[in-house]
Amino acid sequence: MHLNAFLMGVGHHEAAWRHPSTDERRILDVRHYQELAQIAERGRLDSIFFADNVAVGPRVKRNVTAVFEPVTLLSAIAVATEHIGLIATASTSYNEPFNLAREFASLDHLSRGRAGWNIVTSGTEDEARNFGHETIPEHARRYERAQEFLDVVTALWDSWDDDAVVLDPGAGVFADPTRVRAIDHVGERFRVRGPLNTPRGPQGRPLLVQAGSSEAGKDFAARHAEAIFTAQRSLADGQDFYSDLRERVRASGRAEGDVAILPGVVPYLASTEAEAVALEREFTDLISPDYALGQLSRMLGMDLSGQELDAPLPPLPEEAAIEGAKSRFTLVKRLAETERLTVRELIGRLGGGRGHRSFAGTPEQLADDLELWFTHGAADGFNIMPPHLPGGLQIFVDEVVPLLQRRGLFRTEYGAETLRGHYGLPPVHNTRAGSLSTAR
Amino acid sequence: MHLNAFLMGVGHHEAAWRHPSTDERRILDVRHYQELAQIAERGRLDSIFFADNVAVGPRVKRNVTAVFEPVTLLSAIAVATEHIGLIATASTSYNEPFNLAREFASLDHLSRGRAGWNIVTSGTEDEARNFGHETIPEHARRYERAQEFLDVVTALWDSWDDDAVVLDPGAGVFADPTRVRAIDHVGERFRVRGPLNTPRGPQGRPLLVQAGSSEAGKDFAARHAEAIFTAQRSLADGQDFYSDLRERVRASGRAEGDVAILPGVVPYLASTEAEAVALEREFTDLISPDYALGQLSRMLGMDLSGQELDAPLPPLPEEAAIEGAKSRFTLVKRLAETERLTVRELIGRLGGGRGHRSFAGTPEQLADDLELWFTHGAADGFNIMPPHLPGGLQIFVDEVVPLLQRRGLFRTEYGAETLRGHYGLPPVHNTRAGSLSTAR
């Protein structure tokens, strides 16, 4: 079983910073994030992960989410940890591939092989408007750009062979120029000559992660992702997604084991189920309806300000009409419609994990639940989203991980040195000496 | 007097990695860079600085220079230091202003107010070709873009007021929405709505640094820079540059004290002058002519491969015809022509600092020299470029800094908490509550 700790401020619940269990001032304190990573490492987790978007969220009055640029933050965490993988979100829509390839190659070196890239296409209008667009680029165009972007980035990582750095002071050979190559990419959107100016990192390529669950997103993930984060609210949904994704992986010519599928879970844990339910209730009661409406507006791509809270949502369009995050739209729409929720009820359900599944119970119950999903074809592991931090991560590491270890489901020591190794993947070697054109 | 340590691999001399005083394997080791920063901090230096370019250098066989992306690297150094300023180079030609503003705001938070940005426009063809261009964008166009880029970046930093983050859990107010504003920038090259999604950093704005010495570069520096790195090979040249720059600062309506002018110096230090000269000679003898020709080609913007080493340079055009780094071109041209150097001699002179001044002597002699420049209107401090690392920085910190301190020229303890403070500048406050449009 693979476990990723999805970290966000002082917790995933939108009101975490208002709960007495957290210290809201730590949101801007790098030591907080270093300590979270150290707790996760103590639990032998595969990785930590920071989401990102490139716009201030709606309702800045009530909360902000991703305050620091994730690669910059993970670099500060890399040097305070030894083993745990470090996954940063970065956008293919609003970066230059050369810069992104270099940042992740740098992080891979600085962390000695622990860098991972969560590939996103950035589906909100607020983000588009920070980068010269009037509105969100079309969903299909974003994925086309993502494909070419990824082609360029991987070619840049591969522009240095494994053994290109010779470092022979006597002969004065720093690198073997036949093992460092221009890539001469000429595509519809990018023209990039290369090579990269950072030598190949310890992993060859950072781990590729994806969380898109639209049709285009699932196909992209099936072709490229090595770990997949997904929001699945029931075992049956999880099983459907898992088998669908596995089938797409096979269809794209890859081995099933090359991909780890990690549904998210927001765990409210206490020593009795009643206490855990009460804890979740405490968080729900702290929700600011106006902030939650802003988050919901963002997820649905429509402005809900002024919406009556005790009425159902207005009628929603079909997914095909959505240019933003299609699958999150559909998840919310299904939840609202099938359970006939009022907006207030919907907000309560979404408060903890923006659509991800919540779980309230004892550590034993959560271990049972994770084992069930893991052994019933719904998950290769889990994306753990503590509602409050550091407490919610501490209790998971101290009380759930040991149960999983005792059941033989989870590692008791790190068996590998790199993030790819934690996920059971080999490094990506590159020894195509002399192919393509050589650097001068 | 202000002192910046300009760090590069295992030394500024192009053959530093071949010299027995260095361990070339440390070029890819983050702990090496952390230790260099700690040495500089032990000497109470104002700052450390990493240059950058966004292409592999010519002659990758012989050396590479900037291997890691500087912000990523400085973030790992920030958490291993307490006081010293952290200056990263980043390009206005090949980044998006929103991303750059966010990275530097993040670094400013992670370092508790120690971030600085060395603004470059990227003047080589190799770089242009990694970002969709066939050749270097015209010099004047690069500076026009730099101006608009900086306007956007500073507006984004200013999109949060000092006191915008309220963090009142009881009232549920994270930030005051009247103190977080869209910037609604619409210019010739950029359309950026804002606000930034990172709150205002401890310095308000990171320190702005510039090293352009062309006419356009000097005007840009005079309008915006708070520290200026420059290559000046003689006291007279240094005095001319210093008074010219100061005059431009006055003409642009700023106070002279708002800018620190820091000429570079590459110090070869030993307990006798003869030993120091011999040390410099050891480095010169290790130069690979083909690497040095590549560096020279890059500085002059012309291909010199196949050039006869014991002949003078071919005739060079006037600076006006150069679209790359104009002032570095002129510096090299003047050096070659006025001293009638052969290419081999020119390469030897440039080997240590790519045009910056070398100094070989005792610590006492260097302290005298720095004092002379400092007290004779040529410098507010110095950009120290150790030819070999860590040794060249260690001897500067342990043997030159104490002399400067004893003469009352340099601080004995840090008197400020931020990089701006080290350079005698106040934080940039922003309290224009309610101006512009407010964030939702």
Automatic annotation (TrEMBL), chains A, B:
Pfam families: Bac_luciferase
Superkingdom in the source lineage: Bacteria
InterPro entries in the record: Diverse_substr_monoxygenases, Luciferase-like_dom, Luciferase-like_sf, NTA_MOA
Residues binding FMN, per UniProt: D52, T89, H139, Y143, S213, S214
Boundaries of every Luciferase-like domain copy: 21-372
Alphabetical list of SUPFAM superfamilies matching this protein: Bacterial luciferase-like (SSF51679)
Single GO term (MF): monooxygenase activity
Keywords: Flavoprotein, FMN, Monooxygenase, Oxidoreductase
PANTHER family linked to this entry: ALKANESULFONATE MONOOXYGENASE-RELATED, C2H2 FINGER DOMAIN TRANSCRIPTION FACTOR (EUROFUNG)-RELATED
Protein family (similarity comment): Belongs to the NtaA/SnaA/DszA monooxygenase family.
Designated name of the protein: FMN-dependent oxidoreductase, nitrilotriacetate monooxygenase family
Species, as recorded: Williamsia sterculiae
